[in-house]
Amino acid sequence: MSNGHKRKKVAVMFGGRSVEHEISVITGLQLIKALDPIRWDPYPVYIAPSGKWYFGKKLLDKGFYLRMPGSLSEVTEVTLLPKPGVGGLTILENPEEHASPVIPIDIFLPAFHGTYGEDGSIQGLFELADVTYTGCGVLGSILGMSKYHSKKIVEAHGVPVLPCQVVNRESVEADFGKHLTSLRDQIIKRLGNFPLFVKPCNLGSSIGVVRATCEEELDSALLHALKYDVSAMVEPCLDKKLEINVSVLDDPQEPIASVVEIPVSSSGKELTYEDKYLRGGSKKGDDSMQGMAALTRVIDPEDLDPVVKERARSYAVTAFKALNASGVSRIDFMLDTTDGTLYFNEINTIPGSFSFYLWMNSKPPVFYTELLNRIISVAQLKAVRKSSVERQVGFKALKK
Amino acid sequence: MTDINFALLPAKNRTQFRSNVPIIMMHGWGQSLNSMRLLGELLSNFFTVYILDLPGFGKSPKPETDWDTREYAVGVRAFAESKGISKCFLIGHSFGGRVSVRLASMYPDLVAGVVLINSGGLKRELKFPKNIRAKSIGLLSKSVKAIDSMTGSKLFQEWFIPKFASLDYKNAGDMRNILVKAVNEDLTQDSQLIKCPTFILWGKNDTETPLECGQRFHALIKDSQFVALPGKDHFPFIDEGAHICAHYIAPFLQSVNVEIKQEEKACV
């Protein structure tokens, strides 16, 4: 077997200005370990909480992050300039000490979760720089990040969603003196009685999510959610429900859905950030698993109605396409076990651990290495298609 | 027969391809079946997998005598027989690779295919000045032992080992004689006797069994396939690296055209 062909340089980007920063570091480091080293040459790129970008092999060591900020002096500050044709990452720190001021990169692979990395911001920069990048474009990222807008679009494509009420920070600030009374009345009128779910509109990993069982709890839940976001969303809470997740993978022909999973919370209630990222390692005593891969879950549960499984997979593909998603996503549903209705809950356009644990258990199985090969190949194909789009018509109007 | 502890991962019914030839996986020195569990789980999508604790490691008791790798091969064959396995694939890492090479050369009817991952078995080619240093240490070891036997001193134990011995040797405990036997073996001839399809997977940055050992195995084993993984070390299958190894190993094993006939069907 030949090992001789030239490997493509892949900038694996993680960290970022997000409350999910740490989870992104785990996703990024896991991903680099699984990336096929015969085809791809991984370049770790870390965006610190300050927003500064760094490059260096030391970023591969988990201990690096525990030694911050001192360890940042051991890596090179870089950036991506928003202009086409640069060919990679521009070195900001003492560029004269390097053989070239630019580190060549063929493909950018964002592994961020949450704000600025999964919400279209960095995708916008990739577009300006005209580079090949994996996953959703600007539109898919923005739609995916907004729980409200994604629900509205998915609903328009025939997938059931629960009703919801968006509360903006300014309305709460304006109403604060009246103890949120009118706002609360509006919410209850629209959504029915307690309990209600309150969550930040543009955030993942269950951060800021609270179940409110009375008026006082609703007030504090709104304030809590608005600590993390400028808008919060309130939804009714189903009495008897089951969370069902499915991953969808882009394909040149038609996106494909993974097996379904039922994540298991420690309390028997809603999943928390602790359930998702801190409990971990419960699977057969293997404490090497981290991030979403370590969550306790039942994959492809035998006792779940096959009709429900197929419906979840079909809805997931519909949602993926409707939201203009690309790469790999995880789509979360809520099953009302009293009447069997399956509700779209949210899409994660850069899911924790890239949902590889679902793909390795799918039929047929897709190992993480192959999953990443496919994601990168689709990105390359899209870049070729995009390169044929005409962007300039020359100066005509000004000459008139 | 020595008891061998093992993990059995039955083939999952997740794909149209489902072989009835099982895989026996063998770990490296100082490791246990747990080191190969994730790789085994991934491969169990297609194959029934037995991951062994080789005798003297993990939960398997030490052999009653100090075995060489031929005796390990005999022990693993007895294990296969006890499970009704008439044909199998082998995956061996490092020390487990040595045992795999022995098994494939000694029992060609049992072994349908071999995967060697950063396998031991070939003497490292040391260049100047490392070869001079290795020879000097060997000579010194013999001299120190001779002094100890003549004077009753404990120079070898108290001075030589802490100063010159490898980490494996220091940690070997009552497995030390087995380790010494293993590292002094050269499996060049056994490698040449392997006739079954063989896949050699190697972490390029390995410092324990360097890349040139893998390249020599490739040259010695007829029609073998060789893949060197850039950036990976002696343990390319650790953590998510298991997905890379499975990505290369599974298609190779699937390509081996072998099926156990009904009358000799294994317990898989």
What is the assembly state of the chains in this entry? Answer: heterodimer
Content of β-strand of chain B: 5-15%
State the end-to-end CA separation of chain B. 22 Å
- What is the overall shape of chain A? globular
Total domains of chain B: 2
Task: Tell me the Rg of chain A in angstroms.
Answer: 22 Å
Highest-level CATH class of the largest domain in chain B: Alpha Beta
Gyration radius of chain B, rounded: 19 Å
**Which architecture name of the largest domain in chain B does CATH use?**
3-Layer(aba) Sandwich
CATH homology superfamily name of the largest domain in chain A: ATP-grasp fold, B domain
Helix percent of chain A reads 25-40%
Number of strands of chain B: 7
Main sheet strand line-up of chain B:
1-3-2-4-5-6-7
In CATH, the topology of the largest domain in chain A is named D-amino Acid Aminotransferase, Chain A, domain 1
Taking pLDDT < 50 over at least 5 consecutive residues as the criterion, the unreliable ranges of chain A are 280-287
* Count of the domains of chain A: 3
- Please give the largest β-sheet of chain A: 8 strands, mixed
